[in-house]
C-alpha cells in the first residue's frame, strides 16, 4: 500500500540516520518510487519537523491517476467505457494516490528531477509538469532543478543511472 511503502522508507531513514553520523541522506525515487520518495519526505517534514537532505526523482509523474491515464501501455484501454472507473478510480479506492504534485508544494529540501526525453513509460511532460509545480511553490527557487537527457543518449525509462555524468549532476 502507499502507506506501507511510506512507513517502510521512514523506518529505513531512521535506521540509516542512526548509523550515518553526519553524512547526508537523500531520498532517491525512480518511477513509482518517486511518489514514495515525496510522500516520505513530506511526512518527515510535517510530522517530525525534519527535512531530508535532498530528494532526487528519476522519471517521475505528477500523481498515480494522471500517470495511469497517460502511460503508453494504457492507450488502447482508454477508449473503452469504464476505463476511468475500473482502472483509475480503483487505485483511489485502494488508497493509492502517490501525489507528488501535492507533496512537492510543501517540501523545502533540495529537489532534483531527472527525466529522459525518450522515456517510453512515463512521458517526459509529466516530469516537466512536476518541476513547474515545485518551482512555483518553493520559496527558494534555487533548490529546485530539472535535468533532461536527450533522446540520442538512449536512456529511456530505466537507464538514467547509467549516464557517466550523473554523479557530477547530482552533486
What do these coordinates show?
By secondary structure, the protein is of the alpha/beta class. The chain has one domain (2-64, 98-170): Rossmann fold. 44% of the residues lie in helices and 13% in strands. It has helices at residues 2-19, 32-48, 64-70, 83-93, 100-103, 124-137, 166-170; strands spanning 26-30, 54-58, 111-116, 144-149. It has a 4-stranded parallel beta sheet, with helices on one face. Helix 6 links the parallel strand 3 and strand 4. The longest helix is centred in the first third of the chain and has 18 residues, at 2-19. The model has no long low-confidence stretch (mean pLDDT 91).
At CATH level 3, the topology is Rossmann fold
Overall, the morphology is: globular
What is the fourth-level CATH superfamily? Alpha/Beta hydrolase fold, catalytic domain
Q: For the CA atoms, what is the radius of gyration?
A: 16 Å
Instruction: Provide the low-confidence segments as ranges.
Output: none
Order of helices and strands: HEHEHHHEHEH
Summarize the amount of helix as a percent range.
40-55%
CATH class label? Alpha Beta
Question: How much is the average pLDDT?
Answer: 91
- How does the helix and strand content classify structurally? alpha/beta
Strand content: 5-15%
